[in-house]
Specification:
The protein has six helices and no strands. α5 crosses α6. The relative contact order is 0.03. It folds into three domains: about 70 residues; about 45 residues; about 45 residues. It has about 180 residues and is mostly helical.
Length: about 180
Amino acid sequence: MNTFLLFISFLLNGLTIYAVIVLYTRQNRLAEVEKRQEKMIKEMEEMISSYLFEMKEENEDFLNKFNRLNKKIPLPSFEKRITEDTLSTTAEQKTNEIKAQPLNTSNTIRLQAAKAYQTNLVNKPAEITPPEENSLPVSDAEFLINQVKSLAKQGLTEEEIAKNLKRGKTEIELLLKFHQNTQE
């Protein structure tokens, strides 16, 4: 009886040691996964911050170029009078005028383009004639389909048709399948 109890005791001790080892390895794996995730999070944060910094620099460059372009565009005469009369305005109002100015110039450009387009339409009357049904050219695809159909009616296989038309076998197969589907 003592040997049996001693055997059960050793067996239980072995099982507990095995359970401790399994739990320890799982805990280590979990810790490694957490470390990897933290590392990935840090890398992602660094990438995002560098991307945002890069975007900020690009935006600043764009704004600088945009402001330089605004300074190069001459003001129309009525806007010159307005700006001369309002020299005592605040800095915010000046920036609003500068921001509004490109919109006005783009609108004038659009209006000029629309007027030019309309004058071209008026100068060139449209001569539209309806196409005759007999004069419609047969497209290459329709011509190919007709050739494939006629060769298939003659009893040629898909490979022979492909060789005769110097096309791919799968292309001919697909043409025949699609044509059969459209007939049904």
